[in-house]
Amino acid sequence: MQAPAPAAGLASIAAPAAAPTSPQPHTIAYDRYSLIIDGKPTYLWSGSFHYWRLPSPDLWADVLQKMKAAGFNAVEIYFDWGYHSPRRGVYDFSGIRDVDRLLDMARDAGIYVIARPGPYINAETDAGGFPGWLVTTAGKPRSTAPDYTAAYREWMTEIDRILARHQLTDGRGTVLLYQVENELYDDSADTRRYMQDIEDKAHADGITVPLIGNHNDNFFTGVGAVDMPGYDSYPADFDCTRPERWNNVYDFASERKRLTRSPLFFPEFQGGAFDVWGGPGYEACRKLTGPDFERVFYESNIAAGSTMQNFYMTYGGINWGWLSSPGVYTSYDYGAPITANRTLTTKYDQQKLIGYMTQAVPSLARTDAVATSAPDNPRLRVNARVNPEDGTRFYILRHADATDTSNDTTHLRIALGTKTETTVPQQPGTAIRIDGRDSKVLLANVHFGKQDLAYSTSELMTQLSLGDRDIAVLYGRHDEDGETVLRYAAEPTTQVIDGKVAMHWDAATHTLRLNYRHDGLARVAVHQGDSTLLLLIGDNEAAIRFWQLPTQAGPILLRGPYLARTAIHDGDRLALTGDTDAAGEIEVFTAPDTRGFSWNGVPVAANVTASASLQAHLDGPTPVSLPHLTTWHISEAAPEIAPAFDDSAWKAADRATTPNPYWNHKLPILDADDYDFHHGNVWYRGHFKATGKETAILLGANTGVHLGNHGIFTAWLNGHFLGNNPSGAQQFPIDPRWLKAGGDNVVSVLVENTGHLQEEHSGTFREPRGLIGASFAGAPTDIRWKIQGNVGGEALPDPIRGPFNAGGFYGERMGWHLPGFSDGRWATTTLPRATDKPGVDWYRTSFRLDLPAGQDVPIALRIHDIAPHHYRAIIFINGWQMGRYISDVGPQTDFELPAGLLNTHGDNTIAIASWSTAQDGGLGEVSLVAQGNLRSALHVGTVAAPDYEQVMQAQRALSKPAKGDATK
Ligand code: GAL
């Protein structure tokens, strides 16, 4: 099978549910050519998606369907240990963490899963996926250290148990491959034993699918070897500031040679790039890795013989809460084919064109490189491959220097059957065009249905057979010449239904030659004997409007809408689902006995066209307008600054020992992780008896330095602002009038924790967070520290929103971010609002949405500052932390509020905590923006989560609140 057949509709999509069927076991094998699933060589065309970066399960189904619709037959998924485990021994797989549901959705969407449970995953996420509680352990990570081993086995037991239930091998799901660890480029004996232990554990836990690796040349044989090794490759790098810059194509020939048992496999080939704080934004990353990049590099992989390509990322998502590792910001859009708000881009269109071909020409899964004549234009190069069994040939044509931007033309000499090479195109005065940074895969000697395609200088997007009729979609760049030659036993009858196509029958060679220019959509019908062919020849813009969907009775083709999701035959009618971005036509190519169809459950009136298709009109979305956020309630929210604040219930930061070998600073240990505060902002209050001689205070903090330094801490002495610093140590002068000589003095420090570093195998994720030292100049005065981060530390009062959602701001501890909190006594304000007072202010407002039913309107919250100010804001929608905005760093200003968290048919609460880090803080203008508007089959259920009362109750049950906390 080319891809698993989808179940009849997803739970969240308006389509009839499938009858339960008994599981069918499947075989997964592989050889040096390709994966072989149930005996069929299969081209793996896969994309990465992280469910934990999209905390609204119905939207998982949306992403998976969008991937399936674009021709992806697999999705690669990291499972994030830290996301599921707030404390040792505690694992949550419910709600937004319901991995069973995710894997069922993948099965229902008809898409294979490459499972990547780590234990280490990297992924620009906090500690590379290690849980917060692992930070303060001692053993070397990613080694056989006993404490590390005990920890990760705990996780593997939990996640393997779920993955094992969904394996393709026993037919209960579509888990196809299982990745062991992540990019471990270390071949030491200990690392090999560590790898072997994960593998033995997976097998003991019931994993039966092949084990894969993305460790480049490592773990091919011997202890720790994986079944299918793979190579990760990011040829465009990650510098989105220069999106025009290209690198050349690397030749994977030696890797191809090294892999003697398994195919050339890219577990991660570049699908976009992450952006950093202060970076150029994701549209630049999307340009860096745009459709031209996709064509040239992904087709070069085909030329190198790869039959397993996974793209990192296909949908990137959102680093909501404190999920990100230091350096990257809230959006993990990644410049991917599907944007963070689930919009389809030109990168998606391009991947669809190639992806469909990889599935439409099964011969591509088994090819050898073969010599071929060079193009007559020396600026160009061609690689040829042939399927040794059926003779299908693939010519991959691009510039010799892949960075070349010149537009060129050429002729190619291609092998047709056993004859000597033929120069194509044959039509005098025409040539094959290759523009700068373009690439084409041209086919020769292809058999499909009853057809025998000699060659085409157009690219084949897809082909399918409907009853007695074969259909092929060919395409080329707008206005380029194309030539297609088909073989027939005798002269066929032909009919140009649409467009301008010249035809020439050559009786000597038994070939029908079609010449045309790619412009809109041309249609040609060709009949000969019992063969009927409909050729649809489009320019790229026309081609991308086609969708091929599987049904119980084989594939169908349709054209027109923004997205086609599912198709089910129901007697002589077809039930289709999908999305439209505007009113327009839909054309359906389906079995001849199909009388009509419905769209999103509503029957539509269709005409039969000259192409023997069904055509109808579809409505677009109705326009939407969003409420203006005019009135805000505001409260000051940093009582910790005041000397009289009661911190008696806070933990004393007075420890003298820690297992964490990374604490190499003076005592006491101040690392927030040692006090179980792993995520978000942390308050420290230091009490000291002043001598009066203190002239300055030296404060050292580590907020997480990586890819630039955009964390921050701010400090106050007896309520007087000392200043701020990004990370590291700073001496703050003390005005003697601020000190109470002989009395209790307080220094209050608010420290951001931008996340734990990713792990390079040495323990970097253990780098301390929070204060790392404090001392006075002028006098050796001692300080006694108290610390307060998120309420409960590892014992979460709100496990639904989980460990990354809330930090240690006063308002977070008081539940001000939650729906149901009453801000009625707060003052009101409008935005923007400026303040000269460093500290933290909370802003709250509510609004009602009633979006038209059956529409998918991705909504974002926008913060707009005319000029940057010194503040950073944390954005909550209905209690969910969906954004971190830094006015003086950027670049993100629009924060996606995913449906499901956002109530699109009811009341919503926004809470924004703004931390003014200097005397020019405040909060900019805040508005809601629609990032799209689709009439859609998507239905999104509300994600259940506790409100203010429920969380407060849980908090009370956990511990007695701090006195100061209780009084405000
Ligand atoms: C890879 C890694 C991924 C991700 C990617 C960059 O090296 O395996 O997890 O971090 O780099 O986005």
From TrEMBL:
Pfam families per UniProt: BetaGal_ABD2, BetaGal_dom2, BetaGal_dom3, Glyco_hydro_35
Catalytic activity, as annotated: Hydrolysis of terminal non-reducing beta-D-galactose residues in beta-D-galactosides
GO BP of this protein: carbohydrate metabolic process
E.C. number: 3.2.1.23
Any GO molecular function: beta-galactosidase activity
Beta-galactosidase domain span: 363-546
Superkingdom, taxonomy of origin: Bacteria
Keywords assigned by UniProt, alphabetized: Glycoprotein, Glycosidase, Hydrolase, Signal
Family in the record: Belongs to the glycosyl hydrolase 35 family.
Protein known as: beta-galactosidase
Lineage: Bacteria, Pseudomonadati, Pseudomonadota, Gammaproteobacteria, Lysobacterales
